[in-house]
């Protein structure tokens, strides 16, 4: 149904069923390489962790629902300091590191408490702990970095990304921050690599990011949509995000994800039509996916 009402707000998984639906959405968007199948106990802990993050930092963990309460999508972000110069931007791994292990334990505890005591007001001591923790993590920050966006597949075409962008813009203004940026993943770079026969490298990726159609918009569908939403390109990041897994896990992944579409442009390097490229290290017994992204800025005004 077009033009139905949507409500944006801070993320909160009401129950395990809602978290399970989110995890399936994440697997569909990112594949099981990034979002592996979880045990029941692991899923309970992860739900508490996400709820804890949103409780501490409601500005950075956003959800959008229909007026009937059905989840339509999620947007995650992180605070950072940036001097406004494109050349000083780091990769996504760098900015995502604010969720260090010690911080995760804090947010897990806050999330678990919020689940256990969800029908009671948080006591004064709990609020003081949360406020102190939040103040330490936000100290000297001036930028919001978008890290993930998920949209329910049967609600595509409802301008969910635009609605979520508008929601986070409001939060950026409330915080008094200067910039809203993100390392965006070009959606059709994998197809481009396969069709062209090019081996992924900095020059190939940079050339693709800046390719334009006759109307002056990017050839890539996602970058084109972002440009229509006011995104300004800053710089390509050829090694934005990486994940290493054991070789056995990689071979199992090849059997389940796009079987028959995997190919090796050179020995030790694997492609399957995705944005990322996989590099195999036989000596270490690992496979590492490396994802290139394009840093872009979304005007807050």
Describe it for me?
The chain has 301 residues and is an alpha+beta fold. It has a domain of 184 residues: Gcn5-related N-acetyltransferase (GNAT) (Aminopeptidase, 3-Layer(aba) Sandwich). The protein has ten helices and nine strands. Strands 1, 2, 3, 4, 5, 6, 7, 8 and 9 form a nine-stranded mixed β-sheet that branches. Strand 2 and strand 3 form a beta hairpin. The longest helix has 17 residues. The radius of gyration is 20 Å and the shape is globular. It starts with 5 loop residues before the first strand and ends with a strand. 29% of the residues are buried.
Brief overview, please?
The chain has 301 residues and is α+β, with helices and mostly antiparallel strands.
Any key phrases for this structure?
301 residues; alpha+beta; 9-stranded mixed sheet; 9 strands; globular
């Amino acid at each position: 149904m077009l033009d139905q009402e949507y409500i944006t707000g801070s993320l909160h998984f009401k129950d395990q069923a809602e978290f399970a639906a989110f995890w399936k959405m994440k697997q569909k968007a990112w594949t099981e390489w990034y979002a592996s199948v979880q045990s029941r106990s692991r899923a309970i802990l992860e739900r508490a962790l996400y709820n804890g993050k949103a409780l501490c930092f409601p500005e950075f963990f956003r959800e959008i629902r229909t007026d009937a309460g059905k989840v339509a999508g999620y947007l995650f972000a992180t605070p950072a300091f940036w001097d406004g110069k494109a050349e000083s931007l780091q990769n996504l791994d760098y900015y995502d590191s604010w969720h260090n292990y010690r911080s995760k334990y804090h947010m897990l505890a806050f999330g678990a408490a919020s689940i256990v005591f969800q029908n009671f007001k948080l006591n004064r001591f709990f609020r003081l702990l949360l406020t102190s923790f939040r103040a330490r993590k936000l100290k000297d920050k001036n930028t919001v970095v978008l890290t993930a966006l998920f949209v329910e597949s049967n609600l595509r075409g409802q301008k969910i990304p635009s609605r979520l962008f508008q929601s986070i813009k409001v939060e950026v203004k409330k915080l008094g921050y200067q910039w809203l940026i993100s390392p965006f993943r070009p959606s059709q770079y994998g197809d481009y690599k396969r069709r062209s026969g090019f081996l992924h490298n900095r020059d190939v990726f940079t050339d693709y990011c800046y390719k334009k159609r006759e109307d002056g918009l990017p050839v890539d569908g996602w970058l084109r949509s972002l440009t229509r939403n006011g995104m300004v390109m800053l710089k390509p990041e050829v090694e934005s995000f990486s994940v290493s897994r054991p070789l056995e896990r990689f071979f199992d992944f090849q059997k389940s994800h796009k079987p028959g579409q995997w190919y090796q442009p050179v020995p030790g390097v694997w492609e399957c039509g995705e944005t990322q490229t996989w590099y195999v290290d036989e000596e270490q017994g690992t496979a590492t996916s490396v994802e290139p992204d394009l840093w872009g800025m979304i005007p807050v005004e």
